Amino acid sequence: MSVNDTATMVRSQVETDQIQVALRARYDELTREYDEAMAQSQVLRLVEVSDTAGDDQADSGTKTAERDTAQSLLRTILERRAQYEHALARLGDGSYGQCEGCSGPIPVERLEIFPAATSCVSCKQHRERRVA
């Protein structure tokens, strides 16, 4: 990594604070979404348990699909929240904005679009090609 790369990664305390506020706000928003989705899931379960009289195979299938969708949503929200929690930890230890793959800087434009990004575009593309 060149001196210029290192210099561009150094943030002022104001910038760090702004990033932290934005990351924390999104984390808190995801926490609220999770709490709401969890409450909806619990209501769905209560309705499912109390309203099974007269269900046919189609009704059971619909309820199963709704339950699966609710569980998938919960997992997705938790995963996204964990990404933001990881980003906050990286900000705290000074590694936020550095690629976890090559240690190079993650472009600011990428971080603006996806603040919890942990890899540069090149490493992300390489990883996706290996998986596919």
UniProtKB/TrEMBL annotation:
Gene3D superfamilies: DksA, coiled-coil domain. Transmembrane segments: none annotated. PROSITE patterns: ZF_DKSA_1 (PS01102), ZF_DKSA_2 (PS51128). Pfam families: zf-dskA_traR. Keywords: Metal-binding, Zinc, Zinc-finger. InterPro entries: Znf_DskA_TraR, Znf_DskA_TraR_CS. SUPFAM superfamilies: Glucocorticoid receptor-like (DNA-binding domain). Residues 94-129 form the Zinc finger DksA/TraR C4-type domain. A zinc finger (dksA C4-type) spans 99-123. This is TraR/DksA family transcriptional regulator. It comes from Micromonospora zhanjiangensis. The lineage of its organism: Bacteria, Bacillati, Actinomycetota, Actinomycetes, Micromonosporales.
